Structures are given as structure tokens and as C-alpha cells.
Amino acid sequence: ENNPDGSMELLSTPHSIEINNITCDSFRISWAMEDSDLERVTHYFIDLNKKENKNSNKFKHRDVPTKLVAKAVPLPMTVRGHWFLSPRTEYSVAVQTAVKQSDGEYLVSGWSETVEFCTGDYAKEHLAQLQEKAEQIAGRMLRFSVFYRNHHKEYFQHARYGRGTHCGNMLQPYLKDNSGSHGSPTSGMLHGVFFSCNTEFNTGQPPQDSPYGRWRFQIPAQRLFNPSTNLYFADFYCMYTAYHYAILVLAPKGSLGDRFCRDRLPLLDIACNKFLTCSVEDGELVFRHAQDLILEIIYTEPVDLSLGTLGEISGHQLMSLSTADAKKDPSCKTCNISVGR
């Protein structure tokens, strides 16, 4: 290994980095180096950095660059658990190879080029972990009979007259925002119409207050939820609050929304789950919701306004309860799983 004068041969600079098998909290990495280095290299140094968000606060201390020192293994090497990788986040990575010498010092190569990649969304098994956490605090089941959606008067006026190719008198699906868990596969991907179903335990009726507007559309529960609907668990989160939210998706079987959810979200049994049920009792459909969660229901298809009623509510507009683009509290033990952030 040593030259006659006692100095070590320099190591070649790693190049042609390839990254694949990316998940929400792991990736596989490989690169090319000279054959002569393969026998000598004892360690890899991997420098991984979260890409700065253009609109993130410049005064916030930057992520400390994290260099992973790993014993040399045959490539490709899987990186998992060495860092807390966040889902759906852009990272840059560069590598260096090294030979640990007898005095404990490292002889190192130059740094490779820097490659960028983006981690994936939560997979079904991660959502199943979130689902288990949500089940633990869902509470008892209360009966309900209507789904409802609050908004401003203008929203319903627009829906009534239709626009462009959209038929009138329909609530049209729109793209879900980025509220909730950062790794949720529905954010920015799934189209739907949001509904609530929570009732006040003393009246059994929808509450008179809403953060979303004074006008409320109510529709009999069976119009959106029945044995020909699939029900999926999508998310569980809080916004630095004592109460928690669960997002569920109602998708008519075989619809586009159903096909999207089938590959990505845990499917629930509509008659038997801890969140939202539709069961046949004495020949009638009976609906129940979890008392201790605020449920946000996404219905994946257009909804005909003529199937329900529209009216003004008497209560206040409680803006603090709005979840539009709400950021999840990453430190809450109740609704976070160990993967990612």
C-alpha cells in the first residue's frame, strides 16, 4: 500500500452518484471509484443536507450539516435510521471515501459532486401506525345523520351557477392543501370536497359555530356513505392543540379517487372501525362518528347541491379552529410516529 517513501497513494474522487429506492425515511446510494481503491477504502463519509426552503426564515439557524461516517460496505448501501430523514423533503448529498490509518487518522479522497433528491411520502405501513395512534384516543362512537360543509355565501353561489365546463348546482372536488402530516400522500395530490360530521354531544346536531363561514350545506349521510363507498384512513394530527384531527376519505367504489387511495391508504371496514361507521340495524343504515376526534372527511367526487339543504348558521366564525394549510405539531407524542417528521 505504501510507496517506498512511506506516503500513501491518493484516493480517487468518487463520481457518478446514483440514488434510488427512495422512501420517506431511507434511500440507497452507490457511486463509482477506481478499482484500486476498492480494496483499500475502509470508510465512507456521506454529507447530507436538507435543501433550504426559499421562503424559510433566513434568521433561523440552518440545519447543521450532518456527516455520516460509515464502515465501507459493498455498494449500493442503504441509508436508513442514521438520520431522521423527513418525508417529502429535498436533500443534497455528497460522498468522500477514506482509509483509516494505523495512527487513527484518515486519508481521504476529494468530495464527489453533489446530487439532489426528494424523499417520498408515508407508505401504507406508516399510515397504519398513525391509524393505531388515532384509534387509541378516538373515544366512544356517537350517532349522526348528516355530513355538512361550511363556507362563505360566494362559494355556494359559484357552485350553484357552475363555471366553464363544470355543471351548475355541484360542489366540485379541489386539490387537498398541505395541512396535516408532512408525509401524507393525499396532500397536494388528492382531489375532493371536505365535509364534517362531528355533532355536539348534548344535542346530537352539528355545532352552530364554524371556522369556515356562516353558510352550511347539509346532506343526509347515506348520500355520501353507504355500502358502495370505500372508506380510507388518511391522516392524524394536531396543531399545538389539546384536540386532535383525523382525515378520512370516502370514495365511491371504482371511482378515480378510490383508485388513488387503494394503493396509498389503509382501507377501513365501514361497519367496524374506531372513526366512522355505517352499519345496517333493523333494516336501516345507522351512522356513527368518534366522539374525541375532529373528523375531516374528504369525498372524492362532485356533490349535487340538490341532494341536501343550504342555510345560514346562527353561531360564530371561530377562525382559530381552521385547519387551512395547518402545520402539524412535530413534538406531540400522541400523533407522531418515529419515522421522519
TrEMBL record:
The name this protein goes by in its record: Phytanoyl-CoA hydroxylase-interacting protein
Annotated family: Belongs to the PHYHIP family.
Assigned GO CC terms: cytoplasm
Positions of the Fibronectin type-III domain: 13-122
Assembly behavior: Interacts with PHYH and ADGRB1.
Functional note: Its interaction with PHYH suggests a role in the development of the central system.
Gene Ontology biological process terms from the UniProt entry: intracellular protein localization
Keyword set includes Glycoprotein: yes
GO molecular function terms listed in the Swiss-Prot or TrEMBL record: protein tyrosine kinase binding
CDD domains in the cross-refs: FN3 (cd00063)
Domain of life the protein comes from: Eukaryota
UniProt entry tagged with the keyword Secreted: no
Keywords per UniProt: Glycoprotein
